[in-house]
Structures are given as C-alpha cells and as structure tokens.
Write a sequence for this structure.
C-alpha cells in the first residue's frame, strides 16, 4: 500500500496589510448616524417614561407655555426665564439632560464594546476604531475613555466638539482629539 506523500511545506508569505485613516466625510456620516440613534433612544425614554411617570404635571405646564408663546417659544426670553423659574420644569429638564448624557455614554461604550470597535454608524460605513498599534485590541479602559470623551465633547461642550473634529483636517493621520487621547484611530 502506498503511503500518501507528505504535504508540501507552507510557503512563507510576507504580506503587509496597509490600513489608512477613514475619509473625513465617512466619519462624519457615521457619527451623525450614531447621534440620531442615541438621540432618538433618549427622546423615547424621556417622552414615554420620564415625563409621564415622574413629571406628569409638567406636560400641562409646557402646553400652557407653548400656547402663550404663539410660535415664538425660543425667541421669547421672558417666557424662557419664566419656565426656568418653575421648579418642576427645571427638575424635569435636569432629569432629561441626565438621561441624554447617560444614554449617549452607554450607547457609545456598549456599541464599541459589543461590535468590537464599531458602532451602528460605523457598521453602516464599514469602519472601526482600533488601537494605534494594530496588534492590540481595544481594552475596557480605552472604550470607557472614548465613550466618555465623545459624550463630553458632543453634549456638554458642543462648540468644543467642532474644534475636536476640525482637528481631523490638521492632523496627518485624520485622528480626532478623542482618538489622540486614547491612542486609537478609525480605519476602513
């Protein structure tokens, strides 16, 4: 009986995988998709749970102010200050802000953790966040820091957000400030 011939030895391949930064417009659209998803989720929780369960009386107060404003709700500064003087409305607004902050933070963190460096917006455009040295995975600390920085820049310091994203145009590797601070970059 013939012995099967031994398999040929493997041929060494010295392939170099080249990755580059994701185009700015793709990052912007992916980020916009993430903001829409997290924002809609936040609004759904605020409208269906927070206001009806914890602040039911504020609905009638808001309707009353909306009727008073006659379509100039945001331009009438006297009406706006009157709203902020109402303790129930002020508490409802603060609680709503806390829900926005928490939902955005957990959305960014959980999506990048479960989708291995991506979010729903990044998945749509087939991009992902990786450690600068590609041989290291994104660890929990990096994911928490990225989520926190994005939430802070996005919600708390909106003007600062634009500066952090404008940094992409100056930085040769097209990395945002939260990428630089966490040692990550977003690639195709």
């Amino acid at each position: 009986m013939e012995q099967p011939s031994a398999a040929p030895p493997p041929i060494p391949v010295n392939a170099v995988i080249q990755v580059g930064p994701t185009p700015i417009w793709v990052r912007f659209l992916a980020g916009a998709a993430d903001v829409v998803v997290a924002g809609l989720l936040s609004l759904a929780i605020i409208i269906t749970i927070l206001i009806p369960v914890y602040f039911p009386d504020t609905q009638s107060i808001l309707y009353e102010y909306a009727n008073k404003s006659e379509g100039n709700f945001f331009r009438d500064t006297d009406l706006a200050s009157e709203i902020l003087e109402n303790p129930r409305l002020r508490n409802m607004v603060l609680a709503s802000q806390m829900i926005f902050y928490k939902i955005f933070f957990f959305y960014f963190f959980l999506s990048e953790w479960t989708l291995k460096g991506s979010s729903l917006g990044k998945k749509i455009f087939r991009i992902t966040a990786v450690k600068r040295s590609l041989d290291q995975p994104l660890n929990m600390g990096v994911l928490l820091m990225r989520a926190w920085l994005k939430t802070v820049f996005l919600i708390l310091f909106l003007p600062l957000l634009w500066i952090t994203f404008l940094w992409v145009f100056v930085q040769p590797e097209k990395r945002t400030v939260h990428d630089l601070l966490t040692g990550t970059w977003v690639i195709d």
Summary: Residues 24-54 form the longest helix (31 residues). The chain has a mean pLDDT of 83. The chain has one domain: 24-187.
